[in-house]
Amino acid sequence: MSHDPAQMRPRRFSAQGPLTGRIRVPGDKSISHRSIMLGALAVGETRVTGLLEGEDVLSTAAAMRAMGATIERQANGEWLVAGVGVGGLLQPGTALDMGNSGTSTRLLMGLVATHPITACFVGDASLSKRPMGRVIDPLTQTGARFTSYPGGRLPLIVEGATTPVPLTYRLPVASAQVKSAILLAGLNTPGTTTVIEPVPTRDHSERMLRGFGADLSVELESDGTRIIRLAGEAELKPQTITVPGDPSSAAFFAVAALIVPGSDLIIENVGLNPTRAALFDVLRQMGGAIEELDRRDVGGEPVADLRVRASALTGIEVDPAVVPAMVDEFPVLFVAAAHARGRTVTRGLEELRVKESDRITVMRVALELAGANVTETEDGLIIEGTDGAPLPGTAPDARVATHLDHRIAMAMAVAGLASAQGVEVDDTRPIATSFPVFEALIATATGQA
Ligand code: S3P
């Protein structure tokens, strides 16, 4: 995807009345990536239901196909993945195009690092700005070699180690992508790979590796540090996986229903893994009416339907300790805060500066353009809310710059639904990376479909 203005797809999102009825958000992006990757490494056929068919996951599928797996969508929507076995990845014939997807890139760099193959990774303008040193540094210790664009960016070439060495690595940054890259590298490495995680991050890799039969243990220290050990040269057994709905996608509709007067919406099948679901707790602390209905287990992950009703929100200080459990949800939390009574303070968000865009600055600029009162700090935003009044929205000649970042586009679309004159975003194309039916679901929930 390029910044070429001729290709951008702008749209003005305007108030369309309350969000009501029932919607179902697509499958979890993190779990979808991992189900394709681990399915491709198992011996035999893995079946995946509810896979997110977004561009990021399709980038992972294309890369795993290029390395030998057979991955097909059935007419009934189920995906079949015929794996090559751990150690069986083939050298791809051309560069692996990762599109906009940091998760595909970092996790696959881990896989390639311990296979005796060479792969070249390329991506779009947003991905090509993102730091890869955080995975290059530890993975180099396996014996793999990396040649990257200056600054540890894409394009980059990975020459996998022929006799990989197992890592023991303490994560210097709270990142599930770095943790997962090291664990995936450990699959085709003799001995035990150990990741020490001082701050817990999403644990889908650990859950799914165990589900596929890997020998993985997690030891919890008294200060909350997790020590994850994976026995290498694993043999993965094919699985039948049901992917729960993505809480990071549900987040946009939860906030929209809270801030658009008169809304009463049920969002079905939302994954509520505690390492992911902190946004809903924070919104409840702000006074949001979010009820969990029919809590259940889907594919080894906790799931519920969420009933969300329009609510008077109050600003809070968000505890920095919860940041990893809602790291992707801050753009839309900022939108909720802009409608609350009083001040919301967020801190500890430095990781947001290296996502698909610099989400601290980009959201400050976007919210200001829509008429909100926002102050940017080094590691967060301070937002003075409107006490329930709609934001003015963007002027007729102004557009929010989304910088190829799907979550900026969706967060500001939500702001538009609650605004006086609408919010125009400069490009809706990136939404398809994680939530291709977002605009269709807005139409459904507002009765326009
Ligand atoms: C992800 C981890 C997070 C998150 C991303 C998906 C994953 O990234 O922002 O959307 O699937 O492991 P970091 O590991 O960089 O925090």
What are the main properties of this structure?
UDP-n-acetylglucosamine1-carboxyvinyl-transferase, Chain; Enolpyruvate_Tfrase_sf; 21 strands; four-stranded mixed sheet; alpha+beta; about 450 residues; binds shikimate-3-phosphate; 2 domains; single chain; 12 helices
Low-confidence stretches: none
Q: Which ligands, by name, code or SMILES, are bound?
A: shikimate-3-phosphate
Query: What fold name stands as the CATH topology of the largest domain?
Result: UDP-n-acetylglucosamine1-carboxyvinyl-transferase, Chain
Shape: globular
Strand content: 15-25%
User: Can you name the CATH architecture of the largest domain?
Assistant: Alpha-beta prism
What is the CA–CA distance across the termini?
28 Å
Give the helix/strand class.
alpha+beta
CATH superfamily of the largest domain: Enolpyruvate transferase domain
Number of helices: 12
pLDDT averaged residue by residue = 97
Q: Within the largest sheet, what's the order of strands?
A: 2-15-17-16
Rg is: 21 Å
Q: Give the fraction of residues assigned to helices.
A: 25-40%
Please outline the major beta sheet.
4 strands, mixed
Top-tier CATH class of the largest domain: Alpha Beta
